[in-house]
Amino acid sequence: RGRLLAAHINHGLRGEASDADEAWLHEQCRDLGVPLRTERADAAAAADEQGDGLEAAARTVRYELLARIAERTGCRFVATAHTKDDVVETVLFRFLRGSGLRGLAGIPRRRILSPSVTLVRPLLDCARTEVLAYLASIGQPYRHDATNDELRFARNRIRGELLPYLRENFNPDVDGAIARTAAWADETQATLDAMAGELLASCRRLQSDASARSPPQRGFLLATGPLGGHPPLLVAEALRQAWREANLPEQAMSRHWWVELTRFALSGKSPPLNLPADLRATKPTPLLLLVAPARRPS
Hints:
With 298 residues, the chain is an alpha/beta fold. The protein has ten helices and nine strands. Helix content is 51%, strand content 13%.
């Protein structure tokens, strides 16, 4: 129960085709009696500014604008139509790039977009063929993004070349096998996150009790005593949570850097550790870890 609104982000990447999609959607929403909010974004400019690929930049801008629309209209949830096929393609794409457990967990069912808006994905158990069959059964036309067929994008090659090859030559149900692996990874990662959260909370309690130091404006300060005796993987996850809560840039933090930061946190007082994004880890005392911007000489 509640209000339903449609939202559309026109990235302008396909010229007249992008505008035709938007016009078609206006007509559909008018016929269905569903209010529509649209925004335009320059994904190419965002990619240049952020240094990311075009797909990544478009995704970032899209969710920012969707969250903004939801906040302006008083919507608590943004629902997207990702399907089980998207999970399979994402997991395979990340596996080929050497992703860890978090990446193999696939696409989360829900994610916080802002303090007042949550992203939900209610169709993750549905295959794309099921969605298309349903649309056909009710006579509902739909639009197809032609860029999804362009093989210059790695994800499209996975969808159009690799997965058909795996289905034909290795396992007809390779999609189901990958989806099951993602479900196991998601459940394991959720358990690890909960354990890491408890460990991080104990570090913060001890830091608050034992030190008058306050966290930096950009970064975090932790007591490292509670980290001792725990597996390095759990320590790394606790540090990752602290990093994310401090809203520090994570893109350049590869597995190498998480291993280095974990070793540094578990060591005694050591020389500073320079990290990506102009950040530095220091040990003000042997039992305190400070991660903050590196101080430049005046």
